[in-house]
Amino acid sequence: MIPHNAACSSLYSYETFVVNREISSLFVEPTFSTYSDNDYDVSLKFDDIITMSHFWQYFHSVLCDKLYEIPTGVEKENGTELLYENKFLFRPRVRQVRVEEGHCAIRNQFKGLFQDCYVPYDTKYEDKTSFGPKKGTPWVHSDGSKTQGVFYQGEIASYGPGGFYFDFPKNKIDAKTKISDLEHDTWLNRGTRAVFVDFAIYNCNINVVCAVKYGPVFNFFPVRLNV
Asked: Which InterPro entries match (predicted)?
């Protein structure tokens, strides 16, 4: 898993390094609390995310809080700034890619345990059918021309630019509500194979444009047993 890619364009390489480092300190290094199966409080970082509950807790506790963090001396959040002088060029976007159920065989020894199966991600198995409430971009597939996504070469697969996406709203309260609604309606499920977070910022003081991609935030993949 690649925690994040930050591609910055600037006249000054040192400023580029600083912005990249600050982005990492905001979204990759912070810890967040969750609970394991035996109810012991556990502190995790981005690289420790391995379950869907970890994913949602990270979105609530880290991503939302940092995207809408209000700098000291600012009276209210406006949803357009990050790290004081950096302006969002567009609303941060979250996109998932999915695969169809099937295209794999369940061995006789396990048919009593599993009713269906999902293969690793491949563009030929990508699921583009609407799911859940079947309304809005989080639940209806969009192609790359609408998501503005690009092909992404990950460690275990090459992901297409389309998918199911949502944009973060202007304020934290609405963002938290949206994330809670998506979690409640099971936006992530066994068909999910990767989740991407994209945003871009511009700092006019040092003339830096930084495009940030967290992807895949999640790699969901099955393990093949040779029995």
From this structure: PKD_2, Polycystin, Polycystin_dom
Residue-wise pLDDT tens digits, 138-187: 999 999 999 988 888 877 788 989 999 999 998 999 999 999 999 999 99
Which pair of structure tokens corresponds to residue 132? 């859940």
Instruction: Tell me how far apart the alpha carbons of residues 49 and 140 are, in angstroms, rounded to a whole number.
Output: 26
Separation between Cα atoms, residue 78 and residue 175, nearest integer Å = 13
Model-level pTM? 0.83
Q: Contact 55/217 with Cβ under 8 angstroms?
A: yes
DSSP string covering the chain: ----EEEEE-S-HHHHHHHHHHHHHHHTS--EEEE-TT--EEEE-GGG--SHHHHHHHIIIIIHHHHTPPPTT-SS--SSEETTTEEESS--EEEEEEB-B-SS---GGGTTT-S--BPPP-GGGB--S--TT--STTTS-B-HHHH----EE-SS-EE-S-BEEEE--SSHHHHHHHHHHHHHTTSS-TTEEEEEEEEEEEETTTTEEEEEEEEEEEE--------
